Amino acid sequence: MVEPKKNASGKAAASTAPTADASWTPTATAKAKATRFRWIAVALWALAIALEAVSIFWLLRQREFVGEDGTLVRNEDTGLLEQQNATAVFPQWAFITLIIALVVIAALAITGSMLWKKANRLDPARQSETVKFFVQNQLGAIISIIAFLPLIILIFTNKDMDGKQKGIAGAIGIVLALAATALGIDYNPASVEKYTADQSTVIQLLGQDEVVWVDGGSVYHVCENVSDIQTGSEKRTGTTAEAVEAGKQRLTLKFASELQKCGLNVPENASEIEAALKEIQGGATDVTLPAPVWANPSDAPIVIENAPAA
User: Fold this and answer.
1) Residues 223 and 166 in one domain
2) What is the DSSP string of the chain?
3) pLDDT of residue 304
């Protein structure tokens, strides 16, 4: 384990070098992986919308005429000749192809959304940038609506499909659209602020940005001698950013018992820190993360001064 820098009193000292932004940042590997996931997601979404366009501009325009034994008449709307007793119907092959197209559009949209959400967990947006944060995290749902809504409307307004065809295709389209949209929504999106709160907690509790995790599970831990990671899997140690890169979404809220288990000092206000961190991890933006209060000032693993008032 890398030892944090210490000041003359033996305590770890926060860096005094001026920094423009001490917020959490992803590792280079995580950022590259997120970029790759996003490009693949965009390609899948583009295919979904392209298939929607093919369905609208070609498939839904297919028709067959039945009863073509009447006399020729001129259609005043189109100027074309038609059989007087002929009836235009939507072909069965086109109907089956339409159902398949709806399923494929859903598969493409959902797969793209899953990859996009993975990318957002590796390289999240800032919650303070409200519009960007919303669009980036809910883009999967937005794309799903775009990929389905026009097509569903045109299915129900198609003049050549009979009622049964409209009912079946429309119902399937609505169900798939709702499923794709629901799966595209990120109900608790990651953010730079959430990850920064976890990182700040770790540094103030341990004196450095170093945590432990194992393969499997979704959280990382403050030390390795805890029951949750005694799984037989290899224990991995790294920064909070490296833990996120490995697929861990947040710091465990059981950090107080873990500190005690590992023989480390536990702040007196651990429950307050836990409560605040839980709210922040849940998406709250108006919560202040308390500084640890130690029974003895010498218990503090790091000395961090409050920022000067603006």
Assistant:
1) no
2) -PPPPB-TTSSEE---S--S-------HHHHHHHHHHHHHHHHHHHHHHHHHHHHHHTGGG--EEE-TTS-EEE-TTT--EEETT-EEE--HHHHHHHHHHHHHHHHHHHHHHHHHHHHHHHSPPPTTSHHHHHHHHHHHHHHHHHHHHHHHHHHHH-SSS-HHHHHHHHHHHHHHHHHHHHHH--SS---HHHHHHHHHHHHHHHSSS-EEE-SSSSEEBS-S-SGGG-SSSPPEEE-HHHHHHTT--EE-TTHHHHHHHTT----TTHHHHHHHHHHHHTT-SS-PPPPP--SSGGG-SEE-PPPPP-
3) 84
